[in-house]
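Case study.
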Amino acid sequence: MNNSVVKIENVSFKYEGQEQYALKDVSFQIYDGEWLAIVGHNGSGKSTLAKLLNGLQFPEEGRIQIGGIDLTEETVWDIRKLIGMVFQNPDNQFVGTTVQDDVAFGLENNGIPREDMVERVQSSLKSVKMEQFLDQEPHHLSGGQKQRVAIAGVIALRPKIIVLDEATSMLDPRGREEVLDTIRELKNDHQMTVISITHDLEEAAKADRIIVMNGGELYREGIPEEIFQMDEELVGLGLDIPFPVKMSKMLKAKGIPLNKHYLSEEELVTQLWTSHSNK
Amino acid sequence: MDISLQQVEYRYQANSPFERLAIQNVSIDIPSGTYLAIIGHTGSGKSTILQHLNAILRPTEGKVVIGDREVTNAKKQKNLKEIRKRVGIVFQFPEHQLFEETVEKDICFGPMNFGVSEADAKVRARRAIKQVGLSEDILQKSPFDLSGGQMRRVAIAGVLAMEPDVIVLDEPTAGLDPRGRKEIMDMFYQLHKERNLSTVLVTHSMEDASQYADQIVIMHQGQVYKKGTPREIFYSPEGLIELGLDVPEVVRFQQKIEETFGTKLAKTCITLDELTDEIEQLFKRGEPK
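After joint prediction, the assembly is written out as follows.
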């Protein structure tokens, strides 16, 4: 897993007319096949980072390399083929009048031959379990279904990397699970890299690695266990502590024997049961 | 001001080929001073109910009583301004509705529309901006130079400046980070207490509903599925889980503990503190059977 697919080196960026830097001297790498969560308060630079990855904006200083190619105005079209983006609001991402037209849109734009296109539309909708909805109009779908169609549109282009920019934040719990399960399956089947920009710490806890942004700077990077050991420090950064960690802390404070702060509820319950039985 | 929905039904585009039944047989009482949360999936009828609370929609069957006004399908309503003044709605992403040159003008727009003089409206704007936790010097800025979180607060101040008796919140924290979410929810709770408002919160978040509301209504497919206090609602969470709704983390964890330990805790816990105490008791009780 140690081949990097994205290299970000000393990147700084500020929006036109703004004095403050949205990103200040940010460097990190993203490895092939990993699930990377990027967390941080509103305005911490998360979404700016997403825009830079896809060449919607270019850094003022520093360098971005994707799949070994330097991201510049000349290479941006090649790089966009490598990266698929799914945004927050499902309603803002529909262009087609039916589900299959919508998925075909990106393929047409890329000049994919018709037979190939028909096949890819079918298979990508199948992979997000929306093949029953080919001729449905988008406004008949639920939020979760719309986001899955948006994902199908991205998958059809066979990107190496998929960026979720708060893609589940407007969905209800069931929709959120549907979308995340779909992405997990696709990631495993197609060896994709997933970059998820999120406020949902339960989701971040399931990532391979987490990057914490704060005020435009990279504040910390590490595996979930390391990041959630930061504890109250996370609250100070405008974030939160996942429930199982909070629960572990409070139980420990009551003198209930626990070895560590657990990241999953299942682990915590199992541990409680064990220490209860051993008393 | 009391609001009550009595056997309310609403059909969109009634008597047309596009007719769609959105809610039916919905009865909800919101006595003055209540903090009510309405929860349900997208499409469960939450937003339709919301629009009945200040007579944006008229029920196709049943009636809505708002203070001393009765809104039914039968008669065309006149002079709804009074209702709109007393029931303030904070819509989803309210910052999208900011439009004036300055924050002050934007906040004053609502009250002045309801006949408040400019001088009074400015006094209200100053009060409202403090209530949402911003400083007065922001009043002369353009709302479009503010951060997203600040814009949302300004939009909320615009509703508060109308000095409503009832405030209706449609997903007020969507898109905010955890700190922003907590700040906004705490702010509304404080206003609710201090100004003795009725508050209606429409949300996906069971966490917020269980923490802040006195009463919860669960909507499912256009009907009231369940209503009661948080403790009543979460006493048997299985039904909610079946509907694909979230239950609060505390409730979910209590369920897992009870399954694993094969025993019921003494009460339905709503807060982390309560649950910690109950688990401590479980350990004190000694050996499992």
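Observations recorded in class. Chain A has eleven helices and ten strands. Chain A has a mean pLDDT of 88. We will return to this complex in the next lecture.
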